[in-house]
Design goal:
mainly alpha; 5 helices; single chain
């Protein structure tokens, strides 16, 4: 649907100093944050929605993206909102 081969897409992303995985992770992180803050979803439900087979895998990924677990992230943002 992008009208280019897989190798062409890979080269183009490389020229832009990114990768398919990096783009996928960026979108997953944005969606996860939205679900944590705006939809008040459970961590396990977010993990499933984003295609993770285990909630623990999602938690590890979220921590690598943000430096915090999903629960700690939500709690910190809520504390900042109440300050």
């Amino acid at each position: 649907s992008l009208h280019m081969s897989e190798s062409s897409l890979r080269r183009r992303l490389q020229r832009e100093d990114t990768s398919y995985q990096a783009l996928k992770d960026e979108i997953r992180c944005e969606v996860a944050i939205d679900h944590l803050l705006n939809q008040r979803a459970k961590v396990a439900d977010i993990a499933e929605h984003l295609g993770f087979t285990e909630p623990s895998s999602f938690v590890r990924s979220f921590k690598s993206w943000t430096g915090q677990t999903p629960t700690a992230y939500r709690d910190r943002i809520q504390e900042l909102g109440q300050a």
